[in-house]
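Materials and Methods. Structural model of Alpha/beta hydrolase. The 244-residue sequence of Alpha/beta hydrolase from Streptomyces antioxidans was retrieved and submitted for structure prediction as follows.
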Amino acid sequence: MATYVLLPGFWLGAWAWRPVADDLRGRGHDVHSLSLTGMGERAHLARPDTDLETHITDVLNLIRYEDLHDVVLVGHSYAGAVVVPSVADRMPDRIGRLVFIDSGPLPDGMSHLEFTPPEEQSRNAELVRTKGDGWRLPPPPWRRLASEAPGLPDDVLERLVGLSVPQPWATATTPVRLTEAWEELPRLHVLCSFPVAEVRARIGVVPAFRHMATEGWAYRELPGWHWPMFDRPGELAAILHDVA
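The predicted structure was written out as tokens:
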């Protein structure tokens, strides 16, 4: 049996992991899916000052108060880029392995916002200003994006549309602060929207990818949508099970 902590990306809560979590529990594992502050069933707690540090504290407290050890810490997208390495950096003795779902760790001093192209940064900032009360990023047009996942069940899409909530913008603009403690942990990268070859091509030329040039990486390709917990949950759960 392994102990998993599953962290969702932007706009999502613990509910997004339900099919994957149920599968892993059915295989005998201990699974903790977490809604970060302001997300999912904790949407009512969102505030303008809800930032990356708030979300890091969420995870550290879960591990501490549930007395979790040898954790397989899994982060999708935003959570993988900045929350997972930050938690592992501060509590490396409690973590057994890091898993990045269609994501990778950003270097010290970089924010999640800075990883996106300039035009996307400007577009999102305008959405925050005009539709997010100046501090929240509204969910994307899921029905349009779902055209990239032709096998996505209708009920899954409806749940995605109905349960997604705006993302506190400060979580995107807060720079990550890391030492080197987390880099001693083994890591798995599950690639969905881009292949291993593309990652390797970017390692030497894109600063944001520099941590992926270090030893200790393993890669698994799961081609499909950026959100594999919705379009390929069984296959994602099988990959996570293999980690154990």
